[in-house]
Design brief:
Blueprint (H helix, E strand, L loop, with lengths): L23 E2 L1 E6 L5 E6 L2 E6 L2 E7 L14 H9 L1 E6 L5 H6 L10 H4 L4 E2 L8 E2 L4 E13 L8 E13 L12 H4 L2 E3 L5 E3 L13
Antiparallel strand pairs: 1-11, 2-3, 2-6, 4-5, 5-10, 6-9, 7-8, 9-10, 11-12
Bound molecules: flavin mononucleotide.
Length: about 210
């Protein structure tokens, strides 16, 4: 089949696009609002984009419209642009249920970490806390936000870039050879619809690049 996204002529019951660019890692973003209230939400339009300096991005879609009392922006982006800081907590098999819970749309003054029964742990270089239950945390400083050209206001997406200025790795995830034990980490990733995948030891394979 072939379809043109702008025409929406795929003829399928659901837009297939987010079932095609998969699996997508999930950045579980903690930020603080101007009053210090903790915000937490999962973002699967998330990835690392370069090494030096290590930089990550996530793309946030439209939040509540002005009719709903909002300004179209989601809390994570608004907080990060206001405070300049955030933390990406890695999502794994063990925290999958809590991750899903924190996608609920709640008022900006609700502490979503407390709501999901997660424990706050102070960060070293930034003010937003880390999630103690997550085994890897990237402390980030906001670099810039880029608005993606969109068709209509509800389609809006902003890509938020952050420089990773501090990295926490749970010690037991580092092997005797000094490598990250990804099979033990068991990161989860987003497929399309409501589906996810997990990296297990038996789904990892190795390939050596040609010279
Ligand atoms: C696995 C998963 C991935 C998600 N990825 C995104 C995403 O990439 N961009 C986005 O705008 N919303 C995404 N969402 C929805 C947001 O998490 C949800 O809108 C959340 O309430 C936003 O919170 P905030 O307003 O506190 O930032 C995702 C939800 C789930 C469960």
């Amino acid at each position: 089949m072939f379809y043109e996204p702008k025409k929406g002529d795929h003829g399928l019951p659901k837009n297939p696009f987010n079932s095609l660019v998969i699996p997508r890692p999930i950045g579980w973003i903690t930020s603080l609002d101007a009053n210090g209230v903790v915000n937490l939400a999962p973002y699967s339009f998330f990835n690392a984009v370069c090494y030096r300096p290590p930089t990550v991005m996530f793309a946030g879609g439209a939040g509540p419209s002005p009719d709903e009392g909002g300004d179209w922006s989601k809390d994570s982006r608004r907080n990060i642009e206001a405070t300049g800081e955030f933390v990406c907590n890695l999502t794994t098999w063990d925290t999958r249920e809590q991750m899903n819970q924190t996608a609920a749309h709640v008022a900006p003054d609700v502490d979503e970490m407390a709501l999901a029964g997660l424990t706050q742990e102070p960060s070293q270089l930034v003010k937003p806390p880390r999630i103690a239950e997550a085994p890897v945390h990237l402390e980030c400083r906001h670099v810039k936000s880029v608005e993606i050209p969109h068709w209509e206001e509800p389609d809006q997406y902003f890509v938020v870039f952050g420089e990773v200025i501090g990295v926490h790795i749970r010690d037991d995830l580092i092997t005797a050879d000094g490598l990250i034990d990804v099979g033990k980490l068991r990161p989860i990733a987003r497929l399309g619809y409501n589906d996810y995948t997990v990296v297990n030891p038996d789904t990892i394979f190795t390939m050596i690049r040609p010279e």
